[in-house]
Amino acid sequence: MTNHQTLVSNSVAGAIPIAVSARHCHVSKEDFIHLFGTNAQLKMWKELSQPGQFAAEQVITIKGPRGQIDKVRVLGPFRQETQIEISQTDAIKLGVSPPIRMSGDLENSSPIILIGTHGILHKENGLIIAQAHIHMSETEAATFNVADQDIVKVEITNEVRQIQIMNVVVRVSPNFRLEMHIDTDEANAASITTNQNGKLMKMG
Q: What is the pLDDT of residue 14?
């Protein structure tokens, strides 16, 4: 088994801040120029919680066999490959069946059409449903007794719900800030509120 597939055992208590990741698009510089023109600049609209990441001023339309979704935010900085992340509800609206994947794992992912202000792109790969994951620093990983690519579960409890999200991937980097990322469907299922935390637990 690879590290990504390895399950770790025993439970560990710890508060993990939860962030809801709405549908968005990471773009390569080449695709950005195709969508918005040679004179367009990837300009920051607002900073995101992870250092160096930002929401750009630009938005696109994504189109599938059954429908389309407008105003999908482009995130920066540029990536080597264009990647679009949506929820399962979005996928049903578009009429597509994207795999649940970690960011960057785009081989044999779903095709999608991207529409910008300047051009249209027919991408053969790049559409995924992002797997729930936790960003953390090396110090935080040591505190929680986990390692990069470990698979854990996170329990979310509030006045409305108590659920566990399984198969959450741990991502460790000195550049990361402690935060769990889930999509809008997972957030709705958990009745996520402002400043919601989750309890990290080992799989077993």
A: 66
Is residue 23 a contact partner of residue 72, using CB atoms and an 8 Å limit?
Answer: yes
What is the pTM (predicted TM-score) of this model?
0.89
pLDDT of 11 over the 50 cut: no
Handedness of CA 129, 103, 44, 82 (dihedral sign): negative
